[in-house]
Amino acid sequence: MALINPSILSADFARLAEEAKAVEGADWLHVDVMDNHFVPNLTLGVPVVESLSKATDTPLDLHLMIEDPDRWAPQYIEAGAGSVTFHAEAAAAPVRLAREIRAKGARASMALKPATPIEPYEDLLPELDMLLIMTVEPGFGGQAFLDIMLPKIRRTRELISRHGLQLWLQVDGGVSASTIERCAEAGADVFVAGSAVYGADDPAKAVRDLREKAEAATAAAGWGCAH
Questions:
Q1: Which of 39, 102, 112, 172 is deepest in the core (most CB within 10 A)?
Q2: Is residue 160's pLDDT more than 60?
Q3: Any catalytic annotation for residue 189?
Q4: So where's the catalytic machinery, residue-wise (predicted)?
Q5: Per residue in 202-221, pLDDT tens?
Q6: Is 224 annotated as a binding residue?
């Protein structure tokens, strides 16, 4: 089963509770936290996440594009995050951080920027519940999908399979009706979609359509995902 996680970065920030309800059929709600240091953009922090978690039954998938995630990640779990993603490029002690996230009851995830290879982190994979491959440079929504990330997605799926891990493989950046099938065929099974969902006339239908396309591509590719 493919998981579709709409990104509220593309939602109307003045109507976050309503925007969350508009995609209640989604699997998770993807929340980008940016600090204007790790990436050149500033979004929202712990208080907004806490309010959002109370306004929706959809679990929150937090993506920390921030410096010092080792310090801040636990606070986002306390605010209501069900999954917390930190960047490999920013974490001082990724194994310790992943274990702390899990110990606090959330899913532990690590993200890689487009230029960061997966291979140096192969031994860390068992410590994670999800790996996020960025398919654009992190920092802004609405960017064009980077096709050159597809081989990296394939290599990551091969590593996951080789180690027999139940590890979700997420992609984020430029995911739309025209790109999601390529991502699924390459091995992704969790898809962050921003403007493709919130830019649609019917966001809930957009979620269903994206999931259908991803699952069809996964079946055609001959590899399966179990959530």
A1: 172
A2: yes
A3: no
A4: 32, 172
A5: 999 999 999 999 999 999 99
A6: no
